[in-house]
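quick one if you have a minute, typing this from the bus. theres a chain ive been looking at and ive put its sequence and its fold in token form underneath. please have a look and point out which stretches look like helix strand or loop to you. anything you notice is useful, everything is just below.

***
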Amino acid sequence: HVQLVESGGGSVQSGGSLKLSCVASGYDFSKCEMGWYRPAPGKERNLVSLISTDGTTTTYATSLKDRFTVSLDNAKNTLYLQMNSLKTEDTARYYCVAALQIWGQGTQVTVS
């Protein structure tokens, strides 16, 4: 049974930081591109970041690349998203995805 479980969300003041985690189980984590998405106006889910299977290639939404950092630990089957200098507009539910097909349930981030 393939499963992605996100954690690390919460409430934080503007300018603060959070680090999200996504643990994959029932799947060979090292064989697929992983990423983070969040809802945006008019879109169910909008790209936050993607990372290649070996972690050497990353993609970010243009507006986020200076504040967010994606990484992975294949040995732990865990994907991370370090979010710094958070803004109120970053408030959203953040979803982990594997191969753009398998989705987690999301973790809520609230910035006030």
User: Anything to note?
Assistant: The radius of gyration is 13 Å. The chain is about 0% helix and 55% strand. The chain has a mean pLDDT of 93. Residues 95 and 106 are 4 Å apart (CA to CA).
